[in-house]
Amino acid sequence: MNRPLFAAWLTAIAAMLGSLYFSEVKGFIPCSLCWYQRILMYPLALWLGIAAYRNDRSITLYVLPIAVMGMLLSGYHYLLQKVPAMRGFELCTSGVPCSGQYINYAGFITIPFLAFTAFTMITLFMILARK
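Structure for Disulfide oxidoreductase, as requested:
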C-alpha cells in the first residue's frame, strides 16, 4: 500500500466529514466559496480511496491540479475573512457573506483555513506519492 495515497484519502475523508458536520449538525449555511471548495474536495474522497485501494499512483496526475485549485480558492476565501482590504474583492453578493466567520479558534482557525490545510496536505501527499 502506498502510504501517501492512504494519508491523502484519510485527509479528504476528514475534510468531507468536517464540512458535513458544520452544515448538517451545527447548521452553518455554506457560502458560495464554501460550495466550490466542497465541489473540489468531495470527489477526492472517492477517487483517493479507490487509488489507495488499487495502489494507483497515476491518480496524482488528476488529483494534483484539483488540490492546487482548492488551495488557491480556500486561501482566497481565508484572506477575505482575515484581511479587511480584501473585502472589496468579495465574490459573494447574496446569501451568506464569504467574509463571515462561523468559527474562529485561536484567532485564526476558520472553516476556509481548515479547507486550505486539507488541500495543502493532499497536495503534499500527492507529491510524495509520485516518488
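DSSP finds four helices and no strands in the chain.
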